[in-house]
Design brief:
Layout: H1 6-14, E1 25-26, E2 32-33, E3 42-43, H2 46-60, H3 65-68, H4 74-86, E4 93-95, H5 99-113, E5 119-123, H6 128-141, E6 146-150, H7 155-158, E7 163-169, H8 181-190, E8 194-198, E9 217-220, E10 235-238, H9 240-243, H10 282-297, H11 300-321, E11 327-328, E12 340-344, H12 348-357, E13 360-361, E14 363-365, E15 369-373, H13 381-396, H14 403-406
Parallel strand pairs: 2-13, 5-6, 5-7, 7-8, 8-9
Antiparallel strand pairs: 1-3, 4-10, 9-10, 11-12, 12-15, 14-15
Helix pairs in contact: 1-13, 2-10, 4-10, 5-6, 11-13
Bound molecules: pyridoxal-5'-phosphate.
């Protein structure tokens, strides 16, 4: 194989159909950001938009803004926009709460839709909050629910007559492995179970068609590839066919049929709105809307094609320049990989710290994984080149082994 050159990367950037999107973000000089899968970058339009919401809508129009500026309908309107990114219909998605809280709400509702079945099935390598939430719910429901985790490869075979709901994350946060959403959804349906997909590392990074795959339930994250900002509200999806049957566990007033009737008895809203709970975080939603609008301008097939080109180039450059240093944790087949590449090394934490000191920002996932995320709207091929060049420098001189790079911080 011929070696990849810097000129190749620059040529790929010149030919990039998505290149213009990078200017729509405010990226700091001297930083190569490869962690958009954990916290998306700041869109240039976010600060002016949030400022306008603060100064005009909140500051001047005060409480009138709930009607005048449509604050009250924002969870549904923004949900309808996200629906277009994930292959859902209007009225099937709302923006609300965090991924964790939405998992709780949907798992509880799913158990209610499958009386007589008590198992929540997941894979051992699922994201911790997903597992924790299911554990807590199972404890709360005592003998009416049971959390069962199996190895990733055993998921399909473990779906049985006692399975109420299968909970999976489409792109594994650690390995970047892309689960077969369509096949596993079909399998769950054949077993009579519901399926709940966590799209935290998928929404905005790859084309999705939830309705074509007949997905029942889903949750997703606002602050990763949707660039909604730190702690942005999350979203949830409920297929239309389930909505009227679904009994919410968190029966807050925003999920009531008539919140402003101030009725003392709870009655669920007719559609997806019944999964709202409390007052929507308007400022966070305003910021998220800017990120979602940007994603809506991009063609997701092009986003996916560029994501594959970036991850392929990254893997090839690591093999070219750092042979023997790392184990490739992510699947080599790009069709089985999300928009990240994970490498394993026993000194992974220190290597990531050494890269950050050089202005290259990936992240570290315990126990030994260096995780490089590629956000196609703003990551360039030359960024990949720079990242691997610095990675080689950090490895060659054992620069990572300096004491300051071993010091542990709370967020890795
Ligand atoms: C990022 C992420 C979450 C985040 O959950 P929050 O409650 O929003 O903090 C959940 N699940 C997965 C798979 C994630 O990657």
């Amino acid at each position: 194989m011929t070696a990849i050159t810097r000129a190749d990367c620059l040529a790929a950037d010149r030919a990039d159909a998505l290149a213009a999107f990078r200017r729509r973000f405010r990226l700091p000089r001297g930083v190569t950001y490869l962690d958009g899968n954990s916290l998306g970058a700041l869109p240039a339009a976010t600060a002016p938009r949030v400022r306008a919401v603060i100064e005009t809508e909140w500051g001047r129009d005060l409480i009138r803004s709930w009607n005048r500026h449509g604050w009250v309908t924002l969870p549904g309107r923004l949900g309808d926009k996200i629906a277009r990114l994930i292959g859902a219909a209007p009225g099937e998605v709302v923006v609300t709460d965090s991924v964790s809280v939405n998992l709780f709400k949907l798992l509880a509702a799913a158990l209610g839709l499958r009386p007589g079945r008590r198992v929540i099935l997941s894979d051992r390598s699922n994201f911790p909050t997903d597992l924790y939430i299911a554990q807590g719910l199972a404890r709360l429901l005592d003998d009416r629910a049971e959390m069962r985790v199996v190895e990733e490869a055993e998921i399909a075979a473990s779906m049985g007559t006692d399975t109420a709901v299968v909970m999976l994350t489409q792109v594994d946060y650690r390995s970047g492995r892309l689960h077969d959403l369509t096949g596993l959804t079909r399998r769950a349906r054949a077993a009579g179970a519901l399926i709940l997909w966590d799209l935290a590392h998928s929404a905005g990074a790859l084309p999705l068609d939830l309705n074509k795959a007949d997905v029942d339930l889903a949750v997703g994250c606002g602050y990763k590839y949707l660039n909604g900002g730190p702690g942005a509200p999350a979203f949830l999806f409920v297929a239309r066919r389930h909505q009227a049957l679904l009994a919410p566990a968190l029966t807050g007033w925003f999920g009531h049929a008539e919140p402003f009737a101030f009725d003392s008895k709870y009655r669920p809203a007719p559609g997806i709105a019944r999964l709202l709970c409390g007052t929507p975080p308007v400022l966070g939603m305003a910021a998220l809307e800017v990120g979602v609008d940007l994603s809506l301008e991009a063609d997701l097939a092009s986003v996916r094609a560029k994501s594959i080109a970036l991850t392929e180039r990254f893997i090839a450059l690591v093999e070219q320049w750092c042979p023997g240093h790392f184990d490739l944790v992510s699947p080599r087949d790009p069709d089985q990989r999300g928009s990240q590449v994970s490498l394993a090394h026993p000194a992974g934490y220190a290597i990531v710290q050494a890269l950050i000191a050089r202005g290259i920002i990936p992240d570290f996932r315990a126990p030994d994984i260096l995780r490089f995320g590629f956000a196609p709207l703003y990551t360039r091929h030359i960024d990949v080149w720079n990242a691997v060049r610095h990675l080689r420098a950090v490895m060659d001189g054992n620069e990572w082994d300096r004491p300051e790079h071993h010091r542990r911080q709370m967020v890795t």
